[in-house]
Amino acid sequence: MAKYFDVHPDNPQQRTITQVADSIRAGALVVYPTDSCFALGCQLGSRDGIDRIRSIRRLDDRHHFTLVCQNFAQLGQFVQVDNDVFRAIKASTPGSYTFILPATREVPRKLLHPKKKTVGVRIPDHTVAQALLTELGEPLLSSTLLLPDEEEPMTQGWEIKERLDTSVDAVVDSGDCGTEPTTVIDFSSGEAEIVRKGAGDPSRFE
């Protein structure tokens, strides 16, 4: 049965954030809020977490997982960013964007796109997500909580708890965080390619 954490959206309770971070370090799969919608998250190297996310969302091996990072310095450890791309991403973060970039050796092979050797990265503009990332001290391996055969992500923490009670270990709820996923920009070729238009304004990359 999943634990349910009701967290203040503007002043997250540190004790609760620490408890959630500790559970992630211990291998938990959690649902947490972001600036686009709820996401599934686990520790970067958790094989079990990756497999459970794939199972919940019925994902194939071509799916781009996302490393949700606290800041740009952390992001730079996991992806290769040249000067032009650096400026474009820096100007757009934190925010509702996911960037697909060539991965560094810090990224477990299981997370990489099998042919491109790329991974998604993002820096959320969300108080609770940032508090959790700060406490964790490393990126959260994440995927949007969009269930198979459903067009929109769920928005209510209590509903997520009911639906995924035996599939996840914890649900962190700080209120509705919307149904629109991030805008996805693929920079793996060096040029910006808009893969998905979502919550972030895509016009700056067009």
Automatic annotation (TrEMBL):
<dbReference type="InterPro" id="IPR017945">
    <property type="entry name" value="DHBP_synth_RibB-like_a/b_dom"/>
</dbReference>
<dbReference type="InterPro" id="IPR052532">
    <property type="entry name" value="SUA5_domain"/>
</dbReference>
<dbReference type="Pfam" id="PF01300">
    <property type="entry name" value="Sua5_yciO_yrdC"/>
</dbReference>
<dbReference type="InterPro" id="IPR006070">
    <property type="entry name" value="Sua5-like_dom"/>
</dbReference>
<feature type="domain" description="YrdC-like">
    <location>
        <begin position="14"/>
        <end position="200"/>
    </location>
</feature>
<protein>
    <submittedName>
        <fullName>Threonylcarbamoyl-AMP synthase</fullName>
    </submittedName>
</protein>
<dbReference type="GO" id="GO:0003725">
    <property type="term" value="F:double-stranded RNA binding"/>
</dbReference>
